[in-house]
Amino acid sequence: MPDSTTGAVFADAFAAEDEAILSARDASAQFGIEPVSPAVGAALAVAAAARPAASIVEIGTGAGVSGLWLLRGAPAAQLTTIDVDLDHHQVARSVFAEAGHPKQVRFITGDARDVLPRMNDDSYDLVLVDADWESLPGYVDAALRLARVGGTVLVARALQGGKVANPARRDRATVTHRDLLKAVRDRSDLLAALLPVGDGLLQLVRR
């Protein structure tokens, strides 16, 4: 039987991170932020490159790790990144500038629950959701509204470190993610895939 832990470590090692991403990862540690794993970051880059994405929204900036991975996949894209914490944005702004993206990132500091309703429907190629789980269903609904037909919505940490797959786990965070997966799985207007990288990456494409 394959060792899933060894496989995850190997997948993270396979996803080489450049100095900019490593710098953002260090900044994340200083803030106590848990950024996406290298393997998840690589999956974000591939998703961004596949279309390729010209316009991206990120819900949850952190210190810029996931945003840098997205721009690695789509280096010409315009990235709009939303975070409630101004300190996060100040650090991320520096990180993006040092990585050579000083003008293609728009920072919106505020509660995504207030920001997302003011954004245009059907206007983005890719939307990444990596924010507080309490508001996850609303974030995903908003992301699907923002994404164009054929666009992609990605939800990080969808497996919650494997807890979602364990029916005995009934804590609120696990149940919220499990209910989300059930809700999107059979929707006729979506293609859905659940990738077992990092804490899980849910990939949705609007038909």
Fourth-tier CATH superfamily name: Vaccinia Virus protein VP39
Distance linking N and C termini: 37 Å
Strand content: 15-25%
**Chain-averaged pLDDT:** 94
Write the H/E string, N to C: HHHEHEHEHEHEHEE
Let me know the largest β-sheet: 7 strands, mixed
CATH topology term: Rossmann fold
Structural classification: alpha/beta
Strand order of the largest sheet: 3-2-1-4-5-7-6
Low-confidence segments? none
Number of helices: 8
Structural descriptors:
alpha/beta, globular, 8 helices, single chain, 207 residues, Rossmann fold, 7 strands
Task: Report on this structure.
By secondary structure, the chain is of the alpha/beta class. Strands 3-2-1-4-5-7-6 form a 7-stranded mixed beta sheet, sandwiched between helices. The chain has a single domain, classed as Vaccinia Virus protein VP39 (Rossmann fold). The chain is globular. Helix 5 (86-98) links the parallel strand 2 (78-83) and strand 3 (105-109). The protein has helices at residues 4-14, 19-31, 38-50, 65-73, 86-98, 112-115, 136-146, 172-185, and strands at 55-59, 78-83, 105-109, 124-129, 147-156, 190-195, 201-206. The chain contains 8 helices and 7 strands. The chain is 43% helix and 21% strand.
Question: What is the topology?
Answer:
Blueprint: H1 4-14, H2 19-31, H3 38-50, E1 55-59, H4 65-73, E2 78-83, H5 86-98, E3 105-109, H6 112-115, E4 124-129, H7 136-146, E5 147-156, H8 172-185, E6 190-195, E7 201-206
Parallel strand pairs: 1-2, 1-4, 2-3, 4-5
Antiparallel strand pairs: 5-7, 6-7
Helix pairs in contact: 2-4, 2-5, 3-4
